[in-house]
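Tutorial, part two.
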Amino acid sequence: MMFAALSIKEWTAIIVLVTFALYIGIAWWSRAGSTGEFYVAAKSVSPWANGAATAADWMSAASFLSMAGIISFAGRDGCRYLMGWTGGYVLLALLLAPYLRKFGRFTVPDFVGERYYSQAARVVAVVCAIFVSFTYVAGQMRGVGVVFSRFLDVSVTLGVIIGMAIVLTYAVLGGMKGITYTQVAQYCVLIFAFMVPAIFISFTLTGNVIPQFGFGADLVSEPGVSLLEKLDGLHQDLGFEKFTSGKKSTVDMFCITAALMVGTAGLPHVIIRFFTVKKVRDARLSAGIALLFIALLYTTAPAVAAFARTNLLQEIPGKAYAELPTWFQTWENTDMLAWVDKDGDGKVKYGPGKPFEKKPKQLGETVRVGDKDVEKRGPHGQRLWANKLTGNDNELYIDRDIMVLANPEMAGLAPWVIALVAAGGLAAALSTAAGLLLVISTAISHDLMKKVIMPKINDKQELLFARLAAVVAVVVAGLFGIYPPGFVAEVVAFAFGLAASSFFPIIVLGIFWKRMNREGAIAGMVCGILFTGCYIIYFRFPQLVEFLGMTPLKDEASNWLWGISPEGIGTLGMVLNFAVAIIVSLSTAPPPEKIQHLVGSIRVPRG
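Running the prediction step on this input gives:
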């Protein structure tokens, strides 16, 4: 009875505090005492533990919070994230993981430096790893801020700072050893948090407790009408395209999916996980186990997207502001949901018109009521916003990152379920952030300091540099989280494009082509990441373009190269990397005999 009376905020505080205490406790129990434990957990992790940790490391805030949110708005076009990320993991497990584990180095830059017998190649790989990891970690810290902002009534900035403190504690204390076992716990939390509300909502809407089956089942309230038919009808009634139709061009869809796929296979924080197991066979086994764990969430995400979109379209459009459910006003307080009454009729219009030009901010004006200053409101009781909407058929702004978090509230589930989703979102964001921060710290301490700048430092000094680098990385990551360049999944998509254009070709050629040399590797990485990074900056960061004295183009399909969006340009960057690396390698001296022999030995099954 005592727990039944708790509010959402109280439930969230309890569950989050319990899970945070668990994470820190595990980190203390498994704290690292050597560089081997800090970098690769002394290569002592079992396949099952590594599989769960890899799944948590890979399923970030983008997977937990933003992927279903983007699918709920993009419909069929959103499947690019499902196909790209899942296919990329299969590619990684089959094509790269066992061979990298047999090579036996700590990090991706370590592999690049040794395989290409060049400190210059190692430094370029370090720069690429840091660039990719910081881009990726921005999305994770934003996810942390979103969760804290809504469920604990704190600002996004304070939420990010709290997340920074937690991840810094167990990343710096435990290194890879602590992170691995913490991520096992985080996987259990995030998958439970994602599945429980999905099961409840699936049963409520369709009578089917398995969300994957409920996705295509008939509605309980309308026998003979499937969920997707209902959703298509709701979309068409409001002037949108059908949920099950696609709007993106085939070329752009292919390029985005390919960039996500090969980007996954080139992500340094995922690759490093396969260095933590005892044997090459364990690397293959843990990859398969991780894929099973990942599939559980990824096959559920489209159903969650459809459930959330259906509940949203049935509850909001056409209603007066005073009639809206309480969760609407609650999410308004986070600045991630907004309504502007453009025609003065007091009803919420929602259609395909252009939304806010930028994220809304409350006007902040107050009026005196008795002896108190209260927020000034519109004639229908609505909140007032400093920036207005554009477009003819849209009065509503919805941040896509809230759809998974708001879904249980839309469905009227119990407060403890809503709080559980918040804890799951934090687990997903923090687990990936920890892995990324470890990549950054090891790239600086091991690949830069130990291998290039100060080769004579001892084990203790190297560990100190690793921990100091992690502290700096957390601070920078927090700034990215407070001032993010876009939605979580969009920001993460940029990171995959950068990984696709920098690491993937060099790793594949390094494993499977003996003739690949250092000159080709350096030239390929530099050309690939510069081309991709400049393209993304040119279209998505106009202020920076103007600062550099150039005139930015509008981020519209008519201005894109061959119709390829910034999210998909990593595919062209990858092709450029392959082409440059091969041409330069064939035009310069072959690698030494011992390197060619090493490449041949990597692919030998035994010995």
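DSSP finds 23 helices and four strands in the chain. In part three we will examine how such features are distributed along the chain.
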